[in-house]
Amino acid sequence: MGKALARVQGHLPGIVTRLRDRGRRKPARWGVRLAAVAATEHIVLESDAREVPSPRAARRVHAHLEIRSRLRRRVLQLRLIDYYFLAVRSRARSTELEYVLDLRFVSGLPQLSRHIAWRWIAASLVLSALALATAAWIGYSATPWWTHPALGPCAALVGASALTTLIAAYRTTGTMRLLSTHGEARLLEFTGGLGTLRAIRRFMPKLAAHLHLAAAARWPAKADQLRHEMREHQRLRQLGVLTEVDYEASKGRILAQHDRS
What we know:
Oligomer: single chain
Strand content: 15-25%
Order of helices and strands: HEEEEEHHEEHHH
Helix content: 55-70%
Low-confidence stretches: 1-6, 23-48
Structural class: alpha+beta
């Protein structure tokens, strides 16, 4: 019995030393774990912030479109950049606007509409027919054309026909419109002349593909998506894209859907 007690007493210093070393190592291990958690939390917070790329400093340009309306003196340039962003540059007479849209907040493909100035087209056709008939009468007349009494009215009809044709071309327009998902704010609206919709339709397949990518990158929780969409509207209002009236109306729609969710 005495030998066994002496053996245990001989091992006690080593056991105490090992326990002391374990106690010292535990805080370090927990410190590493806490540091890892803090780093993870920092990454999550950083990833929650949206970074909208600059239109002139995009890392990648996937597609571009340029539409010029000479009669209306308007230019629209669109560029798909960095997967789900749309860089917009529009110029109308002396007004120029440049900004970037986050496609995660776009409701879908652009709404396209066309306005045809049928009345002006009909007036142009009637005046052209009258001018041709008057010119034919002058040509078949025995009186020399430069002294014919119908020469003045014929010239007036030709001028009126040209003017109505120009007005018909000016008033025949194509409009493209992009709306936000829940706020239904007009993020982009461009009205051009003849050929506008044809150019936009050629751009639509590429835009549709990037809208699909953007939809997959949306926030899973509807409340988060609504909150970020409201921030996007605020950013666009500061850039002058949205008016105060449009911003307040879209904010009301978003808040109504947030209350229902």
